[in-house]
């Protein structure tokens, strides 16, 4: 949705710029036509000298080209100053939001490997009640079942009585080990049923972070396709694995999607430090123009692309180390639309800021 909205803003700005260009073209054409007709009429009246003087006055005076130059200065004055002038209506349509720069904190995260596993607290096995012979099979691996659904019928080998086994809980059948005519002892596992909407995420924590990662710490898990899920650490193992030399921190992910199936390896992002910064802005406020980070600031010449020096950043915010001071006004939302305006109008992003 964010990408579609950005494209919509871009097309809106293109249409707006084209309308301005068409209006400028018509205005410029009209101003050129008037002096041309005046000079031609002087020549037709036979006053050769006067006509010539009138023509020279046109070249040196303020009739044609000065008027044209004046119009160019009026139309592109904002470009020379590096600003983008927009009406209040256009500002509202583009959804621009202007804030005052403030300090804040930026979260520093570290990445840890994690594996998705079955939640053994939400899985169950199905076994025969007696030594039996399998008579009928009603369920297969992958079937979704509800508690009480009949899975198979068996015959007691001693009494020859037929009985059934049922699903012990809601879930998905993840394993099956029976076939019609086979014998099954009381210790046999005929089926395993698991609730796959709840899984364990086991994180390998490097020893140097063991004091920073604690119970109830929030973790963001990132799958290979970029999808994310959040969870809280349920516990951190006090024992270092002999094989991996890491500690295990476990999260329970409720409502897990297919991107977080048991057996999948994912990334775990954990905040390990909070950095205080003098100025912090939303990530979307920063735009890259010609390889330079800029923030749009309002001025008497419109919205100006102001170069900034960035510092620490996280998923939501970026520290500003130079170019924007506390209480300076800046465009916090809608900066992409202003960048698109600048690109489509061919403006010089360095105009107006001393480059």
Protein described:
The protein is an alpha+beta fold. Among the domains are: 16-80, no CATH class; 110-118 and 197-272, Elongation Factor Tu (Ef-tu), domain 3; 123-194, OB fold (Dihydrolipoamide Acetyltransferase, E2P) (Beta Barrel), CATH 2.40.50.100. It contains five helices and 22 strands. The strands form five sheets. It has a six-stranded antiparallel beta barrel. The protein has a four-stranded antiparallel sheet with strand order 1-19-18-17. Strands 4-11-9-6 form a four-stranded antiparallel sheet, with no helix packed on it. Strand 7 and strand 8 (162-166) form a beta hairpin. Helix 1 (2-44) packs antiparallel against helix 2 and helix 1 runs parallel beside helix 5 (335-345). The chain starts with a helix and ends in a 10-residue tail after the last helix.
Topology:
Layout: H1 2-44, H2 48-60, H3 65-80, E1 83-84, H4 88-94, E2 97-100, E3 102-118, E4 123-126, E5 132-137, E6 144-145, E7 150-156, E8 162-166, E9 171-176, E10 183-184, E11 191-194, E12 198-205, E13 218-222, E14 228-236, E15 247-254, E16 265-282, E17 287-289, E18 292-299, E19 302-307, E20 309-313, E21 317-322, E22 329-333, H5 335-345
Antiparallel strand pairs: 1-19, 2-22, 3-12, 3-16, 4-11, 5-7, 5-10, 6-9, 7-8, 9-11, 12-15, 13-14, 13-16, 14-15, 16-21, 17-18, 18-19, 20-21
Helix pairs in contact: 1-2, 1-3, 1-5
């Amino acid at each position: 949705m964010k990408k579609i909205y950005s494209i919509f803003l871009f097309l809106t700005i293109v249409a707006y710029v084209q309308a301005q260009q068409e209006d400028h073209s018509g205005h410029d054409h009209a101003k050129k036509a008037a002096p041309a007709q005046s000079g031609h009429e002087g020549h037709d009246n036979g006053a050769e000298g006067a006509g010539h003087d009138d023509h020279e006055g046109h070249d040196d005076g303020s009739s044609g080209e000065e008027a044209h130059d004046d119009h160019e200065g009026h139309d592109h004055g904002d470009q020379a100053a590096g600003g983008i002038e927009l009406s209040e209506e256009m500002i509202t349509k583009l959804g621009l939001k202007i804030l005052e720069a403030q300090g804040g904190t930026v979260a520093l995260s570290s990445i840890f490997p994690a594996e998705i596993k079955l939640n053994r607290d939400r899985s169950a096995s199905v076994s025969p009640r007696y030594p039996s012979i399998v008579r009928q099979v009603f369920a297969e691996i992958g079937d979704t079942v509800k508690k009480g659904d009949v899975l198979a019928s068996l015959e007691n080998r001693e009494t020859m009585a037929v009985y059934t086994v049922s699903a012990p809980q809601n879930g998905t059948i993840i394993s099956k080990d029976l076939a019609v005519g086979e014998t099954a002892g009381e210790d046999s596992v005929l089926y395993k049923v698991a609730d796959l909407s709840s899984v364990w995420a086991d994180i390998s924590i490097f020893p140097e972070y063991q004091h920073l990662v604690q119970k109830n710490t929030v973790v963001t898990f990132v799958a290979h396709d970029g999808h994310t899920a959040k969870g809280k650490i349920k516990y951190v193992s006090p024992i270092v694995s002999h094989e991996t030399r890491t500690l295990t921190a476990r999260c329970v992910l409720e409502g897990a999607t297919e991107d977080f199936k048991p057996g999948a390896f994912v990334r775990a992002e954990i905040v390990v430090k909070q950095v205080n910064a003098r100025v912090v802005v939303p990530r979307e406020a920063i735009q890259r123009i010609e390889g330079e980070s800029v923030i749009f600031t309002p001025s008497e010449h419109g919205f100006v692309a102001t170069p900034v020096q960035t510092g620490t950043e996280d998923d939501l915010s970026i520290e500003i180390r130079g170019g924007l001071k506390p209480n300076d006004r800046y465009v916090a939302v809608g900066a992409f639309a202003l960048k698109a305006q600048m690109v489509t109008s061919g403006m010089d992003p360095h105009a107006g800021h001393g480059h």
